Amino acid sequence: MTTMTAIGAFAGESIDDPHTLQDVTVEVPELRPRDVLVRVLAVSVNPVDVKQRLGLSPSSAPAILGYDGAGIVQAVGPQVDSLSIGDEVWWAGDITRPGSNAEFQAVDERIVARKPTSLSFGDAAALPLTTITAWESLFDRFGLTPHSTGDLLVLGAAGGVGSIMIQLAKARTGVRVIATASRDESVRWAKAMGADAVIDHHHLREQALDVAPAGVDFLFSPHSKGNVDDYAEIVKPFGHVVAIDEPPGLDLVGLKAKSIAWHWELMFTRSMFETPDMIEQQRLLTVAAELVDQGVLRSTVTETIQDFSAAGLRRGHRAVESGRMTGKVVITR
After folding, report:
1. Measured between alpha carbons, how far is 142 from 140 in angstroms, rounded to an integer?
2. pLDDT grade, residue 274 (50/70/90)?
3. CA–CA separation, 282 vs 57, rounded Å?
4. What is the DSSP-derived secondary structure letter of residue 110?
5. The model scores a pTM over 0.90
6. What is the DSSP letter of 253?
7. For residue 3, with 0-12 CB atoms within 10 Å meaning exposed, 13-18 middle and 19 or more buried, which class applies?
8. 301-305 and 328-332 as β-strands: parallel, antiparallel, unpaired?
9. What distances in angstroms separate CA 85 from CA 42, 43, 122, one per listed residue?
10. Rounded to whole angstroms, what are the CA distances from 59 to 28, 184, 298?
11. Contact (CB, 8 A) for 42 and 333
């Protein structure tokens, strides 16, 4: 076996242009010493997939996108010692390597873990990227522990990361979770995830201070553009903000008077730089799988597309681009 099927992404402005995603045949990836080769059975579409596709330069060679994945290990590199052929696994990939929108993917074992036994491959594929992002935000950036208290404000709470962040915060810390949502559907979703209070992000400052008059201790920001002045009012002195976006020209000076700390979270940092603690992503996914199997965490799938092809993936990208997704969309074989 030297070739495989994949969904190639090409430069293009519209997801409706059939050129942007195409069914292609490419070489099966070669394994590095610590890689596992996984047969991909399900993927999800995240905003980063859309962002990467829109940023592609014109090329005749396809880019293989996709970060979340779930599947079965088919082969292992010579230095792999934590996984075996036949293991059912989940992962969120490496932004510097070909992704999961393919028949097979090579992934470093340190960012792969056995999937929850209680979930299908489709339901499992919805979770890795958002779970890692939420986990690292809560426990590595905010530094929360089971003994932590105070108020956590989660913006975009009905999205993929927000949905997991609410669940993890309620399960593994003592903070009160305030979520933002505006549509009736997303308000119901945030409450179902466990939010203690839900406010409208269109009236962020007013409603946040209504619920937490003294301000919040922690704020998670997936959409920071135009919001920093509000954050300066909403967050307590010596509070913390974690952001996952990077709007051009972001001005944080307004946070200085209160000595508010601004943290960046990028779940790809460990794999991009092969940091000494890279295996922490395998460990956290292992714990997350246990929490799922215990019924503490639930999958956030709201749409399953049973068409692992360019056409199916196009439907997934279109749903994410709409900006109205609640939960996650997955593509399965």
Report:
1. 6
2. very high
3. 32
4. G
5. yes
6. G
7. exposed
8. parallel
9. 18, 20, 20
10. 20, 43, 40
11. yes
Is residue 234 helix, strand or coil? helix
- E strands, 172-231, are 176-180, 197-199, 216-221
Nearest-10 crossing angle of helices 128-135, 280-293: 110
Asked if 224 contacts 247 with a C-beta cutoff of 8 angstroms, the reply is yes
| Structure tokens given for 302 | 């709201």
Tokens read off for 105: 């993917």
Residue (of 76, 77, 53) closest to 64 by Cα position: 53
Single out the residue of 62, 22, 72, 65 nearest to residue 42, CA to CA. Answer: 72
Average pLDDT in the 294-323 region? 93
Those residues with Cβ within 8 angstroms of residue 115's Cβ, 6 or more apart along the chain or in another chain: 70, 88, 89, 90, 121, 124, 289
* Nearest residue to 218 via CA among 174, 183, 187: 174
Tokens of 329: 């969309």
pLDDT in tens, 84-108: 999 999 999 999 999 999 999 999 9
Strand partners, 88: 72
